[in-house]
Amino acid sequence: KTDVAASNGVIHVIDQVILPKS
Question: How far apart are CA 6 and CA 22, in angstroms?
Answer without folding.
Answer: 23
